[in-house]
Design goal:
With 523 residues, this protein is of the alpha+beta class. The chain has helices at 13-20, 91-102, 116-129, 161-171, 188-204, 250-258, 278-286, 371-391, 401-406, 439-455, 507-522, and strands spanning 2-8, 26-35, 46-54, 85-87, 108-110, 208-210, 215-221, 224-230, 235-237, 241-243, 263-265, 268-277, 303-305, 312-319, 322-326, 336-340, 348-357, 396-400, 428-430, 465-470, 477-479, 494-496. Helix content is 27%, strand content 23%.
C-alpha cells in the first residue's frame, strides 16, 4: 500500500508507521524530501515521504524499477572483433559500456585522461603550482568532470532509466538513500570509489578500457563511421562509435567541424561562484535548526529574470559545505567549479550564479557553430592573464560582493578592500569582475544578487565573496542526432551521447543518455 506521510524532521518514521499500520511487516521509502520553509522563523522543518507499507501477503520488491522493453538480451554482433567504441569514461560513457555489457556486448572504452589515483595527484599539483596536464585534470580522466562536483544526482528528466542508474550506483557502493531522496547526492569522495569499482567491473568482464587514449580523428567512409585514430597513431576499427567526450573536449568539436559532421551552437550560461561561510547560509535558511545533524547543511535555489531583456540569472550547482576549485583544462585558460564531499562538512557553502547566453542573439560569430566556445575561451583567457600577473597563473580572480555591487565604474585601478576568506585551495587575488566579463553579464549579475538578497535577507554580506569565472555550466555545442536512432544525422553509426553532445545536464541525465544509446545499439 502506497501512503504519503508528513512528519516533523525529528520524528521516528518506523515508530509512526507501526502505530498507524498494526499489521505492517516492513516498509520501503519511495521518496523523501525536506520542507524547511520557515525554519529561519522558528517553524519546525518536516520530512515528506512516499512510503510503500508492506503487509503479510506482500513481498518487498527491489527499489529499482527498470524498463528494458526496448533492450534485447541477446548478443547482437556476429563478428567477434566488432566491438562498439565508446569515447569518454564520464557518466554517459561508463553507463553505455555497463548497459552494453549487460546485453552481451563487450565494448572498447577510450579515455584521454588517467585513472582516479593518478588523476587526483596531478590535480593537486595543478592547484598548488599551476602545472597542468591538458589530458588529465578536473575536466578529463576516469569519471569525467562530474567526479569533482557534489556528486549531485538531481535531474528533471523523466525516464525509466533514472531508477536503473541510481540502482547501479548503489550496487557499486553509493549510499542507498540516493534512490528515494529528493536531493540525491553521493559526494565527490564517495563517487570516486564508486567509479573505480565500475571501471574495475567492466575490465574484469571483458570490456577493453584504455586510459591516456586521445582520439585525434574519427575514421569515416561515405558518410559512415569506421573507427577512430588515436594521437599515438593507433587505428581502432568498429562499425559503431559512441561519442561521449564531455563538454570540455573542445578539440573534438573542432574535429567534428572539420569533418562536416553536423553540429550547432546552443544556449549556455556563464558567471561566477558566490561563497559564504556555511554557518552563515545555515543561519539564513534554517535559523535555530542550523546545527541539527538530521537536517544537514542548508541549500538554496534562486532565480531572477530581467523583464526588459528577458535574460535569466540563476543559481546552479549549489555546494553546501563545499569548496571552490580551479578547473582549467587549457594551458592559457582559467575557470572555476564547485565541489562537496558526502558529509558537506567544510566551513563554506558556494553556488554558481550564472547569466544565460542566447546562441542566436549574444554570440559574436553566430554563424559559426563553435562561437560559444570562443565566447567561453575569451573569458577564461582574461582570467588566466590576470592571474599570471598576480600569482604566476595559480590563484583565482575574486572580489567581495560589496565591492562588486559598488564598483559600477569602468576604472581599472587596483581594488584596496580586503577579500573575505575563501575555501579555494589555489588561493584568490583581488580582481574586478568587470575585467573578466562583458558589461551585460556584470549588469545582470548585479541585478540578480540584489534581488536574491530580497529573497534571502543577508545574502549580500561582508562575508560573501565571488570567484570566477564559471564558464562550463553546459556544452555550448550540440552534435545533432536523429531522435529515434540517436545517430548523427549525417554520419551513420556515430552516436553523440551525454552532456558533451548537448543531450544531458548532469551526472544522472548523462548516465541515462548512455543507457539509451546502449539500448538503441542493441536494438
Amino acid at each position: 500500500m502506497i501512503v504519503d506521510v508528513v512528519l516533523d524532521y525529528d520524528c521516528q518514521l518506523e515508530k509512526y508507521l507501526k502505530s498507524r499500520y498494526h499489521k505492517m511487516q516492513n516498509f520501503k521509502i519511495l521518496k523523501k524530501s525536506l520542507d524547511a520553509r520557515g525554519a529561519n522563523r522558528g517553524i519546525k522543518p518536516k520530512f515528506t515521504y512516499k512510503i510503500d507499507v508492506i503487509f503479510d501477503s506482500q513481498k518487498i520488491e527491489s527499489s529499482v524499477i527498470i524498463d528494458e522493453k526496448n533492450c534485447s538480451t541477446t548478443k547482437i554482433f556476429d563478428k567477434k572483433n566488432d566491438r562498439p567504441i565508446i569515447v569518454g569514461a564520464g557518466p554517459s560513457g561508463l553507463f553505455c559500456a555497463l548497459k552494453l555489457l549487460e546485453l552481451g556486448v563487450k565494448s572498447i572504452l577510450l579515455e584521454r585522461g588517467e585513472r582516479v589515483n593518478i588523476r587526483v595527484k596531478k590535480i593537486a599539483r595543478y592547484w598548488k603550482t599551476g602545472e597542468l596536464d591538458i589530458n588529465s585534470n578536473v575536466c578529463f580522466g576516469e569519471g569525467g568532470a562530474g567526479l569533482f562536483s557534489d556528486g549531485k544526482l538531481m535531474t528533471r528528466i523523466k525516464s525509466p532509466y533514472v531508477d536503473y542508474v541510481l540502482g547501479k550506483l548503489v550496487e557499486f557502493g553509493a549510499p542507498e538513500d540516493i534512490i528515494y531522496s529528493s536531493s540525491p547526492h553521493i559526494g565527490s569522495n564517495k563517487l570516486r570509489k564508486v567509479i573505480i569499482k565500475i571501471v574495475d567491473y567492466l575490465k574484469a568482464n571483458g570490456v577493453c578500457v584504455q586510459f591516456n587514449a586521445v582520439v585525434s580523428d574519427i575514421l569515416t567512409n561515405d558518410g559512415e563511421v569506421k573507427g577512430v585514430l588515436l594521437a599515438d597513431g593507433q587505428e581502432i576499427y568498429a562499425s559503431r562509435v559512441v561519442l561521449a567526450s564531455g563538454h570540455s573536449a573542445r578539440d573534438v568539436y573542432q574535429l567534428l567541424q572539420r569533418k562536416n559532421i553536423a553540429i550547432e551552437a546552443k544556449d549556455f550560461a556563464v558567471g561566477v561562484r558566490i561563497e559564504h561561510p556555511r554557518e552563515f547560509i545555515d543561519e539564513l535558511q534554517l535559523g535555530s535548526f542550523k546545527n541539527d545533524s538530521l537536517i544537514g547543511a542548508a541549500r538554496y535555489r534562486l532565480a531572477y529574470t530581467n523583464n526588459k531583456t528577458q535574460r535569466g540569472v540563476y543559481s546552479f550547482c549549489m555546494c553546501p559545505g563545499g569548496f571552490i576549485l580551479s578547473a582549467g583544462n587549457e594551458i592559457d585558460g582559467m575557470l572555476v567549479n564547485g565541489m562537496s564531499n558526502y558529509l558537506h562538512n567544510s566551513k563554506w557553502s558556494n553556488s554558481a550564479i550564472v547569466v544565460t547566453i542566447d546562441a542566436k542573439k549574444d554570440l559574436f560569430q553566430a554563424n559559426n557553430q563553435l562561437a560559444g566556445i570562443y565566447f567561453q575561451r575569451e573569458i577564461e583567457k582574461r582570467a588566466f592573464e590576470l592571474s599570471k600577473k598576480h600569482s604566476n597563473g595559480i590563484k583565482l580572480p575574486a572580489q567581495s560582493v560589496h565591492s562588486f555591487l559598488n564598483d559600477l565604474s569602468k576604472s581599472k585601478k587596483t581594488i584596496c578592500n580586503n577579500l573575505p576568506e575563501s575555501s579555494t585551495i589555489s588561493g584568490v587575488f583581488n580582481c574586478k569582475m568587470d575585467e573578466l566579463f562583458q558589461d551585460f553579464i556584470c549588469k545582470h549579475l548585479r541585478e540578480a544578487i540584489i534581488q536574491f538578497d530580497k529573497k534571502m535577507k543577508g545574502f549580500i554580506s561582508d562575508k560573501a565573496i565571488i570567484v570566477g569565472p564559471e564558464t562550463r555550466t553546459s556544452s555550448p555545442v550540440r552534435v545533432i542526432r536523429e531522435k529515434t536512432t540517436l545517430q548523427s544525422i549525417n554520419c551513420k553509426n556515430l552516436y553523440p551521447c551525454g552532456e558533451g553532445a548537448g543531450y544531458a545536464g548532469g551526472i544522472t541525465s548523462a548516465a541515462v543518455d548512455g543507457v539509451r544509446v546502449a539500448c538503441v545499439i542493441a536494438e
